């Protein structure tokens, strides 16, 4: 019997895998209902964990800085920010004393249209919203050295603000263990060199040691930098389905974040019985470009046997990487050469190299990686080290030809935010 499979993004169409080959289809857990109501959101924000309410924290403050994520993340800011802003207003801060800073990391700036879509007309018209300038030294200021051994340069608005709130979403993350928490500040509003060094350090660890693990050196450094920056409160969602709010946490960085990670594991942690020869990894919703979409490969790596085949389904409307035109030039073909070139100072763009090395190492230990994307052509796909496939069915058929008719396959839906746990490894 054949299984007809539809991915979340229907542009890929249906494809079939025989039941004799298919171990299972896995994705974030689904829940009934529409998630938290506005009244429940308000209640969580008004009763934070381990810190005073925002209305109390705002009293006597000169100004406030709200750091958010950008349009590569699904955080429902239109629902959260009105409650946060009401609390700040209740504490005596007028609209002109509040700045919203979009933590881009090294992503491209959000356009005015994207900002309007993300924040809504009412907030855009009443508050100052600015994109972080990660590549502008004049927009940055030193916070001193961090525990990873390098000096931290962070957006100047941090030192100019005496109340800082970080708003984001928690999902498993291949560089930091989990997103959310203090990651809004580091690397969200740090300089390029800091972001490079933070990511480069993660190369010291396997995917199993970082993805979904909270106790790691990267996360520890993030917390320490957040404390140096005097982060006052985090407000983090955990989402399900069509970006409905499964849970919301607000409060102290460590206490509220730990609770949020518990909720995150409930939604995104999935038990897989064994590793597979073939892993189909859907990159949605982290597939605005290929540089984001490769997060799906990180999840696939956890459940793919060495010498297996990974198939990535990624929309990539922005192409390969608008920020790094050299991304496709170097590709994932020679990760160790690139790693050595960086360490020997022959290749200077460390942040670009991090992604190419990390993903290149995963691809190189497998027989092949196949990319299916309507917005990346065959020439560019192959130049980066992927096998090109016109559609998902051809990709699956190709993988079975490579691995043999008895090969076992796993399908990971929304793999870019999934935390697969192999049961046989327990």
Question: Concise description?
Answer:
The chain has helices at 38-46, 54-57, 77-90, 112-119, 121-126, 192-201, 207-210, 217-228, 253-268, 290-293, 295-303, 327-330, 335-343, 350-364, 378-383, 392-403; strands at 2-6, 14-18, 22-26, 64-68, 98-102, 128-131, 140-145, 151-155, 164-169, 172-173, 177-178, 233-240, 244-251, 269-272, 276-282, 304-313, 368-372, 387-388, 409-412, 419-422.
Verbal overview:
With 426 residues, the chain is of the alpha/beta class. Strands 3-19-15-16-17-18 form a 6-stranded parallel beta sheet, with helices on both faces. A 6-stranded mixed beta sheet has the order 6-5-4-9-12-13, with helices on both faces. A two-stranded antiparallel ribbon has the order 1-2. Strand 4, helix 3 and strand 5 form a beta-alpha-beta unit. Helix 1 packs across helix 3 and helix 6 packs parallel to helix 14. The radius of gyration is 21 Å and the shape is globular. It starts with a strand and ends with a strand.
CATH superfamily of the largest domain: LarA, N-terminal domain
Main sheet record: 6 strands, parallel
Give the integer mean of the pLDDT values. Answer: 93
The level-1 CATH class of the largest domain? Alpha Beta
CATH architecture of the largest domain: 3-Layer(aba) Sandwich
Helices, by number, come to: 16
């Amino acid at each position: 019997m054949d299984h007809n499979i539809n991915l979340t993004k229907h542009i890929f169409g249906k494809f079939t895998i025989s039941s004799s080959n298919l171990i299972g289809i896995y994705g974030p857990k689904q829940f009934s209902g529409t998630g938290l109501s506005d009244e429940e959101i308000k209640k969580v924000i008004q009763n934070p964990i381990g810190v005073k309410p925002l209305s109390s924290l705002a009293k006597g403050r000169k100004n406030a800085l709200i750091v958010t994520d950008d349009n590569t993340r699904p955080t429902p800011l239109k629902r959260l920010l009105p409650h946060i802003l009401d609390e700040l207003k209740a504490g005596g801060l007028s609209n002109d004393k509040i700045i919203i800073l979009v933590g881009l990391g090294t992503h491209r700036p959000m356009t005015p249209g994207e900002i309007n879509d993300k924040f809504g007309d009412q907030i855009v018209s009443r508050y100052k919203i600015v994109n972080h300038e990660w590549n502008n030294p004049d927009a940055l200021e030193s916070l001193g050295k961090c525990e990873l051994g390098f000096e931290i340069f962070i957006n100047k608005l941090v030192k100019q603000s005496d109340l800082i709130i970080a708003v984001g979403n928690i999902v498993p993350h291949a560089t930091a263990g989990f997103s959310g928490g203090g990651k809004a500040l580091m690397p969200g509003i740090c300089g390029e060199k800091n972001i490079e060094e933070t990511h480069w350090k993660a190369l010291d660890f396997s995917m199993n040691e970082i993805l979904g693990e909270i106790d790691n050196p990267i996360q520890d450094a993030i917390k320490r930098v957040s404390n140096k920056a005097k982060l006052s409160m985090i407000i983090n969602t955990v989402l399900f389905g069509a970006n409905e709010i499964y849970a919301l946490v607000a409060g102290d960085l460590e206490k509220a974040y730990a609770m949020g990670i518990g909720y995150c594991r409930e939604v995104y942690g999935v038990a897989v019985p064994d590793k597979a020869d073939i892993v189909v990894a859907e990159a949605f919703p982290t597939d605005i470009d290929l540089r984001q979409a490769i997060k799906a490969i990180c999840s696939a790596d956890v459940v793919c046997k060495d010498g297996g085949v990974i198939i990535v389904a990624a929309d990539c409307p922005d192409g390969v990487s608008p920020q790094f035109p050299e991304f496709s030039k170097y590709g994932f073909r020679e990760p160790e050469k690139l790693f050595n070139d960086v360490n020997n100072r022959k290749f200077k763009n460390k942040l670009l190299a991090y992604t190419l090395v990390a993903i290149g190492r995963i691809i190189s230990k497998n027989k092949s990686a196949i990319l299916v994307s309507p917005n990346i052509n065959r020439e560019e796909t192959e130049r980066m080290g992927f096998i090109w496939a016109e559609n998902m069915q051809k990709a699956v058929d190709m993988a079975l030809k490579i691995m043999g008719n008895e090969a076992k396959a796993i399908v990971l839906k929304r793999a870019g935010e999934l935390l697969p746990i192999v049961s046989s490894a327990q």
